[in-house]
Automatic annotation (TrEMBL):
Keyword Transcription set for record: no
GO terms for cellular component: mitochondrial inner membrane
Residue spans of the Solcar repeats: 11-105, 114-204, 213-298
Keyword Zinc: no
InterPro entries per record: MCP (IPR002067), MCP_dom_sf (IPR023395), MCP_transmembrane (IPR018108), Mito_Metabolite_Transporter (IPR050391)
Membrane topology (UniProt): Multi-pass membrane protein
Protein name: Mitochondrial brown fat uncoupling protein 1
Pfam families (alphabetical): Mito_carr (PF00153)
Membrane-crossing segments per the record: none
Keyword tags: Membrane, Mitochondrion, Mitochondrion inner membrane, Repeat, Transmembrane, Transmembrane helix, Transport
Length: 307
């Protein structure tokens, strides 16, 4: 058996909440450069206001990472990490940590097992609530990840706190919630493609007794969840990234951002950065779900240990 044994007493909602946030931070630390590469590839070719002639062209995941290290230094790979960790502690704690509790609310009393509809509703609910609470941190994270693609004279923020203040001052408080609707759509889709897929694959493997409830099972379920989530969420993710990174007045609304993208790049533009998205989301899911399952067991063992 690989990893800790499942606890005899199921983890409480508080334990899941804490474990989800911590596990997501661990996953972010491991995969953040891939996320930054994904953002750079997604905004590449975007018409900027004002226009800039000093642009760097990125080619592929490894090419993007090597170009960033060469032109901006290794620290650029983790630009926006502070906001990213702030986001995960609030965002992942809600959307992942409260998923099981919300799933039970949607499950009819007396039902032997949770149906697909209840799982989908739980994924949409926790995803939407999490985005509403954590959107400002996501806006700042995306702005910082895209910052290095701009000339130094156009870089607007000196730090994370300055970014929050500047956005609120120049764009109003609503600027911190910029792109909330596409982000809610994205995370409702991701939660269904990620959490529900993980839930279903894990349940199927355990019911068929193909694997035991431990690390190998969690790895297989998490990898499948990462692939499904990337396929269904990439189009929304590209639009969300461009809209949140846009200069004030560049796009009237989300549909105008989508239209500009389609006119410029066609349908293929909706899957810009797919490879880094999958590498990032696939690896992120594997690290996060394995850490999440093990952290729950560590906390429950610590709580049940005699004083």
């Amino acid at each position: 058996m690989v990893g800790l044994k499942p606890p005899e007493v199921p983890p409480t909602a508080a334990v899941k909440f804490f474990s989800a946030g911590t596990a997501a931070c661990i996953a972010d630390l491991c995969t953040f450069p891939l996320d930054t590469a994904k953002v750079r590839l997604q905004i590449q070719g975007e018409v900027r206001i004002p226009r800039s002639t000093n642009t760097v062209e990125y080619r592929g995941v490894l090419g993007t990472l090597s170009t960033m290290v060469r032109t901006e230094g290794p620290r650029s790979l983790y630009s926006g990490l502070v906001a990213g960790l702030q986001r995960q502690m609030s965002f992942a704690s809600i959307r992942i940590g409260l998923y099981d509790s919300v799933k039970q609310l949607y499950t009819p009393k007396g039902a032997e097992s949770t149906g697909l509809l209840a799982r989908l509703l739980a994924g949409c609910t926790t995803g939407a609530v999490a985005v509403t609470c954590a959107q400002p941190t996501d806006v700042v994270k995306v702005r910082f990840q895209a910052l290095g693609a701009l000339p130094e004279s156009n870089r607007r923020y000196s730090g994370t706190v300055d970014a929050y203040r500047t956005i609120a001052r120049e764009e109003g408080v609503r600027g911190l919630w910029r792109g909330t609707l596409p982000n809610i759509a994205r995370n409702a889709i991701i939660n269904c493609g990620e959490l529900v897929t993980y839930d279903l694959i894990k349940d199927t493997l355990l019911r068929a007794q193909l694997m035991t409830d431990n690390v190998p099972c969690h790895f297989v379920a998490a990898f499948g969840a990462g692939f499904c989530a990337t396929v269904v969420a990439s189009p929304v993710d590209v639009v969300k990234t461009r809209y949140m990174n846009a200069s004030p007045g560049q796009y009237r609304n989300v549909p105008s951002c989508l239209l500009a993208l389609l006119l410029q790049d066609g349908i293929a533009g909706l899957y810009k950065g797919f490879v880094p998205s999958f590498l990032r989301l696939g690896s992120w899911n594997v690290v996060m779900f394995i850490s999440y399952e093990q952290l729950q067991r560590v906390v429950m063992l610590a709580r049940s240990a005699p004083p």
